[in-house]
Amino acid sequence: QLQLVESGGAMVQPGGSLRLSCATSASPAILHYYAIAWFRQAPGKEREGISCISSSSDVIRYADSVKGRFTVSRDTAKNTVYLQMNSLKPEDAGVYYCAGQRAPYYSCSLVSGGMDSWGKGTLVNVSS
Questions:
Q1: How does strand 18-24 pair with strand 70-75?
Q2: By CB neighbour count within 10 A (0-12 exposed, 13-18 middle, 19+ buried), where does 107 fall?
Q3: What percent of the chain has pLDDT over 70?
Q4: CA 23 to chain centre
Q5: Integer Cα distance of 30 and 58 in angstroms
Q6: What's the average model confidence in pLDDT over 84-101?
Q7: Exposure pattern of 62-85 as b/e (b: 16+ CB <10 Å)?
Q8: Strand 11-12 relative to strand 122-126: parallel, antiparallel, unpaired?
Q9: What confidence tier does 27 reach under pLDDT thresholds 50, 70, 90?
Q10: DSSP 3-state percent helix, strand, coil across the chain (nearest 5)
Q11: What is the mean pLDDT of the chain?
């Protein structure tokens, strides 16, 4: 299992931007076998898969709710995956988690049940 640590959560006004980071101490040789996904959970709602990136970085998926506003990227040298969030809306607020999944090199998933490792989350508030 991976150890994942999220950071970058904050309070921001509607229309603002944030960049979340998901860092792992796993070696590149281990991380090579993992796709990374981002999930979020708002109070009283189910956890929602919003983006994922394959180990190769060639396969990227977004939930319709964030498509065109969020961008996921992977820095292999830093063992870190980023989620750039632009044009934030109040409904984007929640706890954001990153998760790792052992997956084929060109594959990633937004299904929470398929994840092997989870971070503890970082809180995003969007409010004026």
A1: unpaired
A2: middle
A3: 100
A4: 11
A5: 18
A6: 97
A7: bbeebeeebebebeeeebbbbbeb
A8: parallel
A9: confident
A10: 10, 45, 45
A11: 95
